[in-house]
Write a structure and sequence with these properties.
With about 260 residues, the chain is an alpha/beta fold. The chain folds into two domains: about 190 residues, Vaccinia Virus protein VP39 (Rossmann fold, 3-Layer(aba) Sandwich), CATH 3.40.50; about 60 residues, Helicase, Ruva Protein, domain 3, CATH 1.10.8.100. The chain has ten helices and nine strands. Helix 5 packs across helix 6. The longest helix has 13 residues.
Amino acid sequence: MKQNRNKPKLGQHFLKDENVKKIILETVKKQKCKNIIEIGPGDGSITNDLIDMSSNYLGIEYDQSLYNKLSTKYRKNINVNFINEDAGLLRTDTLKSFFKSQYILVGNLPYYASNKIVRNFISSDFKPKNLIIMVQKEVADSYLCKPPKMKFLSNSIQIYADTELIVNVDPESFDPMPNVKSSVVCLNLKPFDMIPKNPEKIINTIKNGFDSPRKKIRNSFTGIKKDKIEKILIDLNLDLNLRPGNLTLENWEQIHNSINNEN
């Protein structure tokens, strides 16, 4: 089996650190949710434990050979299922056939696809309650940013979720070792009534505003006249010298509504 484990194109780095596994499982247990999705169960390093914690378990494994092994190993387990899909492209409404109520998502996400997978789930109509995920530390740091160091990625995640660092993880905790550090983070999804109207449109406005992140916000938008942005900032009592990273999500929502004349 070991000769097939290192598949860089799939971003596979298998967790072997027992202490990190324990921390992840303790975090899952605290959520008190019996419906569990595991993204990339791989060689099953925590799969048995997650199945023991769950009433309904679904593993999403993109690697065909690993999917086949897992499906065979657990074929007699009731309420345990595996699908061979790209989690970043999965239609999340199909999950309703596995879970009739709230679920949580757990996963050691491939570095190259982590943002795509996270965004697919948190922006869907059938969202998880929480995501407890391993990602590259640099990405986790962006998820966790606060003003005045906000980034576009920070905003696009935090518009849907409150973010929490669980533990940082060294490369030696994996086989094969990655070239970067990792972090486990918990994304606690906000209730629907706490998410702004038209969040994806607001995210597009934020992306536009971060077109030149080192410039002052009045100069950082593409395709919008400077005097219009200045008037909006003045009307909102925002300092004209602020940069995109200084702004809160509430600020961005207000700017978006003013640009588009929305209430």
